[in-house]
Design brief:
The protein is α+β, with helices and mostly antiparallel strands and 128 residues long. It has 4 helices and 5 strands. Strand 1 and strand 2 form a beta hairpin. The chain is elongated, with a radius of gyration of 23 Å.
């Protein structure tokens, strides 16, 4: 039905209609409209790993570290501690691991196991 109506439009009206459709679709995909999605995947060159940072509220964040075969679990967890200090600006923050904790026997028991992302919730200390 819409295609039939577009065919009946004159050429300048078609161009205007297409331009309006493109502008509306561009506004619908604005990442700043949703702060949960504003921060995509990022790369940390010091630790050689990829991570996602999501702001949950003014003082809490969710950090998700994406593991690869080159980075050990120790480096992933050290990154979480350092990133927590960078975000909060001081010690006294709370870092709770949600998923991705590695047991010491994983490499021997399951050599081909694909580890989930190391996900943690970070809560900065609120000064009174």
């Amino acid at each position: 039905m819409l295609i039939v109506k577009i065919k009946t439009l004159t050429w300048p009206a078609r161009r205007y209609f297409i331009a309006v459709c493109l502008l509306l679709s561009a506004c619908a995909n604005d990442p700043s409209a949703n702060p949960q999605r504003a921060m995509g995947s990022q790369w940390d060159f010091d630790h050689q790993l990829q991570y996602k940072q999501t702001k949950l509220s003014d003082s809490s964040y969710q950090l998700e570290v994406i593991p690869n075969s080159k980075v050990s679990f120790e480096r992933l967890s050290a990154f979480l501690l350092r990133r927590g200090y960078q975000i909060c600006g001081t010690y006294g923050y709370k870092l709770a691991l949600i998923t991705g904790v590695e047991r010491f026997d994983y490499p021997r028991a399951s050599p081909n196991l694909i580890m989930p992302n190391l996900t943690a919730k970070l809560e900065c200390a609120i000064e009174k």
